[in-house]
Specification:
Elements lengths: L1 H20 L40 H12 L4 H11 L1 H9 L9 H19 L4 H36 L6 H31 L8 H14 L1 H12 L4 H12 L10 H27 L5 H22 L4 H29 L1
Helix pairs in contact: 1-2, 1-5, 3-4, 4-11, 4-12, 5-11, 6-7, 6-9, 8-9, 8-13, 9-13, 10-11, 10-13, 11-12, 12-13
Length: 352
Amino acid sequence: MTGGIEAAGDAVTGAMLARAVEPGHGEAHEAGHGPCLNCGAALTGNYCAECGQAAHIHRSFAAIGHDLAHGVLHFEGKIWTTLPELALRPGKLTRRYIQGERAKFVSPFALFLFTAFLMYAIFSLTSHHGPDDAVKGVKMNSEAQAELRKEQEKADARIKKVEEDLAVPGISAGRREALTEKLVDAREERKGLTLASDLTDSLLGEGVNGGVAKTVGKAVSAAAENPEFAYYKLKANAYKFSWALILISLPFLWLFFPFSRRYKMYDHAIYVTYSIAFMSLLFCVSMILGAVHVTSGLVTLGLLLFAAWHMYRQFKDAYILSRTGTLLRLPLLYGFACVSLSLFFTFLVMMG
C-alpha cells in the first residue's frame, strides 16, 4: 500500500515539475482590475502584460483540485492536442514545434519529464521487486566472500603441508621434484583465489576504483551474478538519469546530417525528446497491459510494429525526407537507437 501511494506521489510530482517548466496558459478567465499581484503592473485583461500571471487568483479549497488537474494533464486542451499528434503525426508535431507553433502544444521537455516520472510510478505499481532484493544482493555477495575465504584457508593449508613435506630430510630427488611442482600449483591457485576475493571486494565498494573499462566489467559481472538486484537498481535509477538518454542519442542523430546548416542541434534535441517521451508512454501502456494480464505475443508484436512505424513517420516528416531517403536511413536509425539504449543501460548499471 505504501509503495502504491509513493508511486502515485511520484506521478503527481512529475506532473507538477513538468507544469513548472511549461509556460502557463489559461489559468483563469476573469478580467482583472488594479495592479498585478505578482509584479505590480496595471492590469488590462485576463493576464498581466508584463509577467504573464493570471489576473484572477483562486483562493478556495476547491481550487487546489483545479490546479492539480491542470498540473497533471493540463485539461484546458494542450495535452489533448499534443497526444494525438505525437501518436499519429509525430514528425509534423516536431516540425511545427521547431518552427514556432508552440502555445497549443505541451513542450517536449515538459512531456518528457512527466513521462519519466509516470514510467517510474507504473514500474513501482506493477513490479514486485524492491529494497528486499537489495538486501538479498548484499547477502549473496557476503556469502560469496565467505566461501572464498574458506577456499583460501584450504589453499593455505595445502601450501603449508607441501612445504612441511619438502622440509623432511632425506627425501628422494623424484619426490622433491613432485612436491615442488605441487607447491607451485598450490601457490598459483592461491593467487587466483586472492584475485577473486579482490574483485568481490571491489564489487561491494571496498576496492580502489579503476578505469572505465574495469568499472563497466565489474558492473556487468554484478548484474550477471544477481539479476534481480540489478533490475531493482535499474528501476531505481532510470527515471533519475533519464535525461542522459537524450544526451547519448544526440551525437548519433547528428551523424545523419553532419555540418548541416538546415538542421541545428536544437532540432535534433526536440526530435529526440518527443521520440523518447512517446516511447516511454508506449512502454507504460505495455506495463499496464502486462499488469492486467492481457499481454500476448500478438499484442507485443503490435506494440513493436507501432514503435517501428512511429520512428519511420517521425523521422520522415520531421526532417522532410522522401520515402526512399527515409527507408535508406531507417536501418541505421534503428541501429543507433539500440546502441543508445545499450549505452544508457550500461550507464545505469554503473551508477547503481
